[in-house]
Amino acid sequence: MKILIRNGYIVDGTGENGFYGDVLIQDDTIIETGKVSQKAEKVIEADGLIVAPGFIDTHSHSDLEILIHPEVLPKLKQGITTEVLGQDGISMAPLPLDFVSPWRKNLAGLDGDTEEINWTYQDTKHYLEMIKEAKPALNVCYLLPHGNIRMEAMGLDNRQPDNRELDRMKEIVRREMQAGAIGISDGLIYMPCAYSRIEEIIEICKVAVEYNGIYVVHQRSEADTILDSMEEIVRIGKESGIPIHFSHFKVCGKKNWDKISQVIKILDRCKEEGITVSFDQYPYVAGSTMLGVILPPWAFDGGTDRLMERLSDPAERERMICDITHGIPGWDNFVDFAGLDQIFITSVKTEKNQDTIGLNLIELGELRGRDPYQAAFDLLLEEENAVGMVDFYGKEEHVALFMKRQEMNACTDGLLGGKPHPRVYGAFPRILSTYVREKNVLSLEEAVYKMTYKAAQVMHLKSRGKVAPGYFADICIFNRDTVKEKGTFTNPAQYPEGIEYVLVNGSIAVEEGEFTGIRSGKVLHRAEGPYEEKIL
Prior knowledge:
Layout: E1 2-10, E2 19-26, E3 29-34, E4 42-45, E5 50-53, E6 55-57, H1 65-68, H2 73-76, E7 80-85, H3 100-111, H4 124-134, E8 139-142, E9 144-145, H5 146-154, H6 163-178, E10 183-187, H7 198-209, E11 214-218, H8 226-240, E12 244-246, H9 260-273, E13 277-281, E14 286-290, H10 304-311, H11 314-326, H12 334-338, E15 343-347, H13 361-368, H14 372-382, E16 388-392, H15 396-403, E17 408-410, H16 423-438, H17 444-451, H18 453-458, E18 475-478, E19 499-504, E20 507-511, E21 514-515
Parallel strand pairs: 1-4, 1-5, 6-7, 7-8, 9-10, 10-11, 11-12, 12-13, 13-17
Antiparallel strand pairs: 1-2, 2-3, 5-18, 14-16, 15-16, 18-19, 19-20, 20-21
Helix pairs in contact: 5-6, 6-7, 7-8, 8-9, 13-14, 16-17
């Protein structure tokens, strides 16, 4: 089938100036742009609208959701046509049968939990096959999580691998990269990733390099020790040869904002030394993750079941409070940099605790008639660690500063459960409304580049992210004057305005702002070679 998009303003994703013209699509591929004379079975009138590549979300948490609700409407209806799954070093695969129960508890705070799927898939190959069978509405690709590698090779304990276990990790990386993973993800504040030392990470990254992989990392610190943390990641890239990509890049906490100039110096030095570095960013001053991160790392030693035992022990609770109050060197203390009043509950899995959603930890304590720490521990215990949260940490001017950096591309980092962060529904439209139309931080062409082709370059996604002949027809058509996120922190689950059409692999998934029911997404496997980097 041929589709003709007619009379639009084409912003092709490269960062070059836009132009008026047409786009002709044959089946799943763009075959002509400019002034098109051929006829087509379907014509989309784009007069007054922007025709851009579909947006690429390089940090997504739809790993489980895409199996249950494969349309993933919060992403699709904001113009996203490709998501990168497997983030933060803890995700769906590989998952040995012996670890299904504890791993589901460990994962629940990020990606949720359900009885609706069969959890016996075991590896990336079969997990990706499950996604194909679900027929997703958008494209997905998968990062191999370090925590899953470590779990399969040596379990969930806080210790270092012996030589045999490290060799086993390398074997797992080879197997899973061959199954289609595009790189390795890490979450060095999450267990069991946080237990690893740099030498272990360098060795598994060396294997991923053999398969043109990338290393995508939630670094050990985005707060007090961010400079040392960045130097660790830079060393990993330098010694393994792998391209490094910092997840949801930021500097957390007022007392750490004076480090921003030094952070920028590290980025500049990497560029001078030829070390491949990039990062993604969501356009908000608040983050979102699982509430369990407020606990000191030792509390998770042995997995979620051992955490539950410790949360049931009054003496262990007092030890946790002591460490949160006084800090641990090298540990990102969320209570310290955000504050109890700036950490809000967003999701729980049981009915009895639904009344906690939307409360900060001070309010949680008041509701339960408990000290805020004890109330938070009670909630984590009752919910078996499956609690999501939002934390406020930054300033708008810092968001803008990092957004303008050459290394930056856009993401949502959207956790989909409960009362989510508004970025789940509106991160990409917010960039177009707030940072392009209102604040002029980026030009329209720069923003589209960072939301499309730049992301494709970083993740080595071939023939994606550009409106040009020979590229897959992932297209977002929007109104530059009205596009806007609608979700707020108090009412986040609102679809944006101004996203008129979304095409995925040449099929119309969103028409005049509404989902058509067509699910034409694909599972994307690793590309054979990297892109040439474009610098605006």
